[in-house]
Queue: 2 jobs
Job 1
Amino acid sequence: MAAHLKKRVYEEFSKVVQIPHEEAPAKKLRLSKLSKSAALHIDLCKATNSTDALQYLLQFARKPVEAESVEGVIRILLEHYYKETDNSVRLKIASLLGLLSKTSSFSPDCIVDDAINTLSNESSWCYIP
């Protein structure tokens, strides 16, 4: 009798139960364009010298910028302005900052302090009254 119970218990616990595996639905991927600020940052980081940086800035100036990405672009330009030593590149960045601040539906209040501090510390400007 004990052997029969032992055999029965062993049979119950040795059975393999397979639960049907439901496949998870495939995730949908969405392709998106690189934002203007990210593209500009990548381009400026790729620049090996000031001539390359100036070329990237000139190409960027020819393209329209969406109002929602203006703040990011301005932050990237200010960041690169601090690092740049060539005056022609710095002048182009300052010019782009002025143009971007005039973009409709953009409030430049968020970057005015940074821009004023950056441009007021500049010593290479020639001021003619």
Job 2
Amino acid sequence: MAMSLMNRAISRTETVGAFRVSINLLRNFSAAPAASPPSSENPSSDSNKPKRRKKKNLIEVAQFLPNWGIGYHMAKAHWNGISYEITKINLYKDGRHGKAWGIVHKDGLRAAEAPKKISGVHKRCWKYIPNLSKAAPATNAADVQAT
């Protein structure tokens, strides 16, 4: 009988002790944010910092041009002197993805005669090149000599 009374007393003190510890933890966690002063070095307070604009894929650049950019020049942002003159675009149903074909131009001059499928259409690095777009048709050397 004495053992059962001791066990009851121990279990009560353990229960009360665990309850006190949990109350103290709650008190510490609830008081910690209120007690700390607001820091000026908080990274989330940089609300005046401009947000970075999401770059566009070829389809998103072409959708704002007349006739979905057919006949206009586009290039990846890191290309120097290389662009594609868009000849054909196949859109998927969502209107933001698809396939595109074009003629390669190097330094503003045609590098190929036949259009080829453009790779990396969905990558977010495309830009429109305004000074090469819808230029006058190129004249052949034979046409220049004949006149």
